[in-house]
Amino acid sequence: xxxxRPPESIHVVRDTVDGGSVEGRxxxxxxxxxxPRHVRFGQLRVLNDETLGPGATRPLRALRHNELLTYVATGxxxxxxxxxxxxxxxxxxxxxLTAGRGxxxxxxxxxxxxxxxLVRMEFLPxxxxxxxxxxxxxxxxxxxxxxxxxxxxxxxxxxxPLRSEATVFSSFLEAGRTVSHPxxxxxxAYVYLLEGGPxxxxxxxxxxxxxxxxxxxxxxxxxxxxDAELLLVETRL
Length: 237
Fold this sequence. Notes:
By secondary structure, the chain is mainly beta. It is built from one helix and 22 strands. Strands 2-3-4-12-6-10-13 form a seven-stranded antiparallel sheet, with no helix packed on it. Strands 1-20-17-22-15-14 form a six-stranded antiparallel sheet. Strands 5, 7, 8, 9 and 11 form a five-stranded antiparallel sheet that branches.
């Protein structure tokens, strides 16, 4: 089964944060936004596509029993915790946090002259009370060109250690190219088209900023009608 979520069906938020503004598209219930139709998909409980204005910061917030992955679409992210600021993550890269027993987390736009666009994903952990830890990964466009590059989860060499029954892939898919991935057992896929396209997900059309939920499908297959940037989350349902 495939459920296509057109862009206009995804919740839009605009707010002010420390030092600037934020605009976002929240795919699932988050903070004071509640949608009983979209609480989570498998182990994926948050997917927020947000743009922080120049110099803006989402301040420290407490997290527990949470696996967080932040993907940088454009710009430069400076993550920080109660120990201070971490290393900058540039476009294409990702930052991972195991909150476990408890951790603090903040996101800042490292540039004062351009916006930062990020996709923040939060997952249910495999087990509770893990020791907090962080990691980051740099990725070039060439590495994810016309393929599905695992950036977090699973037993993939070089992927960040997402401690959840989920794997996150990124792809820059050129026009006319196709990628596919098997969905074995009780697994599903959530495909988000960040920009470009349109693409076809198992022959169903998907425009930019749209998403597709796949369950009870043996394979997910994405074909690009035009150059496209996308994320694919494989998860236990």
